Amino acid sequence: MYKHLLALLFALFLITACTSQSTVYSPTPALVAEISRETAALVLPDGRIYCSAVWIDRDRLLTAAHCVRASQMLQMFGIEPMFQASEDAKPELVVEVLKYDVDHDLALLRAPTKYLHGSAALATFTPSKGEIVHVVGHPGAIPWAYVHGYVSAYLPEDFFGSQPGATGPFMQLSAPIFKGHSGAAVFDANGNIVGIVSRASEKIPDVAIVVHLDTVRKFLNERP
Other C-beta atoms within 10 Å of 88: how many? Predict the structure, then answer.
């Protein structure tokens, strides 16, 4: 009887293990489509995508400040919407930089456009640790690539010291984030912005540093 009991317990263990491994998170197609419509690509004059941005209304976008500073000609930024108004539409190359904050790695752009796109609102609350969040960006110039991850930690204001672009607080995201994701919005399950991707961790793989929602809100509320 003892052997039968052990066999039964082992069988239950296998069933539980297989069930847990088969439970894979899958976002709704509607959410991925929505946040893709709200994501833009920053392109260089030669057409190469180098950063991401998010539409917050009809003609304004949020991105990372280091994306703005990466170009020698600020007026030559371009926006390449995923959903164009016509087949012959081309990326626009004149974007006005309204303001940027090097310390917090945020920039606000204006790009009057005839293209069709969505616009995202800021979330009311910051996500909890362990909560699933979503990103659409352009890693390695691959356009509009979707990835999801988890909020793994919140980092205090002075966590990275006094280096430029390192004034927190930050949200730490466990997700495969690469060059080209910079400036992309991090969305919650409702499609609202909970942060802006600043950079991938240089020491820990699949970990990204995200500008905190409170910092984004304060930046938008401040006058240029």
Answer: 6
Which residues on neighbouring strands pair with residue 208, listed in sequence order? 173, 200
Separation of alpha carbons 213 and 139, rounded Å: 22
Residue type, 211: V
Global pTM reads 0.82
Domains and CATH numbers, the chain: 39-110 (2.40.10.10), 120-221 (2.40.10.10)
Give the CA dihedral 177, 178, 184, 187, nearest 10 degrees. Answer: -10
Q: Which residue bears the tokens 């990372």?
A: 64
Give SS3 for 214. helix
Q: Report yes or no: 150 and 172 within 8 Å, Cβ to Cβ.
A: no
In angstroms, what CA-CA distances link 152 with 48, 170, 198? Answer: 32, 11, 16
Looking at residue 20, its amino acid is S
pLDDT band at 169 (very low <50, low <70, confident <90, very high): confident
pLDDT per residue as tens digits for the range 97-129: 899 998 899 999 988 777 778 999 999 999 999
Give 131-142 pLDDT, tens digit per residue: 999 999 999 888
